[in-house]
Queue: 4 jobs
Job 1
Amino acid sequence: YRGVVVACEPWCTATAAWRQTMGAANLSRGETQPFHHCIVDDRDRPPGQTTFVSEENIVPTDEAFPVQSFLVDALLIPCPEIKGYLPRPRLEYALQRQRADGKFKWDISSEGL
């Protein structure tokens, strides 16, 4: 599926139950590789979906630009010159909080946007 990375964790910070369900330990690079918070393109999955993806499962491309999602519209500024995005203030704030406490937290509910 197409998507856009909005944040990165240095390793899998998901709960033990999530890691077990998703088989994170069975990945070739395991749970200690970087994991990325991604907004998924609405053309590929139900609208508004986000994922937590291991680095080994990401294939960078500029062919997915622009990603279609209300979350992209709310959190990112399209930058066609680079076929990518810059963070809007709401995402920048979440990234600043991550730098302060080490974990990315965002409110993607309709009330939070």
Job 2
Amino acid sequence: ASGKYKEAVARGLAVLRQLKFDIPATPSPGMIMEAMHQTENEASLYNFSQISDHQLGVGSNTRKILKLINTISVACYHIASPFLPLVACATIRYSLQNGGYEESA
């Protein structure tokens, strides 16, 4: 079963890279810390109301991308992938920039 999760992660990351998500081929602890720092900085620009109001009315493309990221996150979790924190940071930053939907909150 872990082979299927590894394949799902590899394919999902390839798609995210095609969508211009900045996810390195080989994550290092330093890269992960940098991504977390960037995400924290971006998130700190918003208050709770701005984030929750931004969740409303996202387009179908944004919803599809968030569902894809969600699926990749689950696969990363199942195989303890070092990509999980990078995918989580990408999810947060993408949601802050484009909005989210109820299931992604």
Job 3
Amino acid sequence: KSTDYIGRAWFHPLYNADAVGHSTVIAGHAIPHKMVEQFRASSNDGNKKELHYDSLARANDLVRQTPHATINILRRSQLTKAGDYEKSLGHRGPKPNSVYVRNAVRLSDSLLGNE
């Protein structure tokens, strides 16, 4: 099947994770807002300033919004190499799921004025 050879990521000017209607990770889509909220609550990053759910959800959607509808196609070999590299970092590497929280918080801060 094609996913043995490629990975896909969907982007759209009006991307809305709630419209996808998922409560778990679906390859190629942004992770559900509630999952980002849970990852943030369980992280130990020391940066727990208040971030309302609506702002978090909006920022999580912004991660997948682009000027034009786009499908990013990635070679499976690229994804495997990236995963292997991340594993090789051991404790120096990013915590699991931290990138989703970091992206949402940064977008919320800079684009939505939640500084």
Job 4
Amino acid sequence: TLAHSAACASVYHSKALEEWEVSGWWHYLGKSTVEDFEAAMRKRLGKEWDDVLLRELRRFYFTAKRDGVPPEYEEVRGRQLEWRLRMSSQAREQREERAVEAIDDHEERLERE
């Protein structure tokens, strides 16, 4: 998925640029909302979508809306996004492992009773 891709930030940014090119004017005029932009990006990214993208997406959106043009891709921001995606992925894996452990513990207790 995008969350595990090394190029996730540049892919996200290029898709955001594509969406802004299509719908940006409506946003700039106040005829569309950040929620509309988020929904369009979820659709554009499909299975590659990860909620951890929301922070960067909103930053992109409000910068573009304020300035009338989208922000340029910055390598530092890309590294920050990749780090956040990696951390989110690790946290998700830990939650899944803990859930499996909890289920196993519960089943063991039921067997003992």
